[in-house]
Amino acid sequence: MLHEKFSYVREKCINGKTYWRCTQYTTQIKCHGRVHTLRGKIVHSSKHNHQPCGQGRTAHLASFSCTRKKKRKLVIDKHEFVMDRKLKSSINWRCSRYRSSNCKVRATTHVLKNGQEVYRLKYAKHSHL
Ligand SMILES: [Zn+2]
Ligand SMILES: [Zn+2]
C-alpha cells in the first residue's frame, strides 16, 4: 500500500482494523512508521525517520501518455500533467486538475545525456484524489 509516498506492508488485522508498517522497517533504517486503516480510511499514522520515496534529489524516469489532440501528457503516480512551459533544457508541467481542483502540483522534466527523460516533482501534494 502507498500512502503519502511511503509504502507499507500489511502486518495484521484485528477487529476490522488493519495495521501496516513501513517497508523500511526491515532494512537498516528500521523505520517505525505505521498506519492503521479502518474500512479503507487512515485512522492513525506515525512518523518516519526517513524521506518518502519520490522526494529529495533522486530523479525519476518520466512516463507519458497522449491526449486526444496528440499532445504529450506527463503521468506521475496516475496523475496527469499538462505542458505549461517549454524551456531551453527542460519542460514545466502542471497537474491537469490545476483548474478544476485548484491543484498546485507541478513537475519539470528534462532529458539526460543518455537520452532518458526524468522528472522532478514540486509541491508533491495533490488537492484531489
Ligand atoms: Zn518509513
Ligand atoms: Zn493534482
Give a short summary of the structure.
The chain is an all-beta fold. It has two domains: 2-45, N-terminal domain of TfIIb, CATH 2.20.25.240; 60-122, no CATH class.
Record keyword descriptors for this entry:
129 residues, mainly beta, N-terminal domain of TfIIb, 2 domains, 7-stranded antiparallel sheet
Task: Map the helices and strands.
Blueprint: E1 2-3, E2 6-14, E3 17-22, E4 34-38, E5 41-45, E6 60-61, E7 63-66, E8 72-76, E9 79-86, E10 90-95, E11 106-111, E12 117-122
Antiparallel strand pairs: 1-2, 2-3, 3-4, 4-5, 6-12, 7-8, 8-9, 9-10, 10-11, 11-12
The structure holds zinc ion (2 copies).
Residues 79, 95, 97, 103, 105, 126, 128 line the site of one zinc ion.
Query: Low-confidence spans: pLDDT under 50, at least 5 residues?
Result: none
Structural category: mainly beta
Number of domains: 2
Q: Output the strand order for the largest sheet.
A: 6-12-11-10-9-8-7
> What portion of the residues fall into strands of 2 or more residues?
over 45%
InterPro entries: Znf_FLYWCH (IPR007588)
Keywords: Metal-binding, Zinc, Zinc-finger
Protein name: FLYWCH-type domain-containing protein
GO molecular function, one term: zinc ion binding
Describe the structure.
- The protein has 129 residues and is an all-beta fold.
- The chain has no helices and twelve strands.
- The protein folds into two domains: 44 residues, N-terminal domain of TfIIb; 63 residues, no CATH class.
- The strands form two sheets. A seven-stranded antiparallel β-sheet has the order 6-12-11-10-9-8-7, with no helix packed on it.
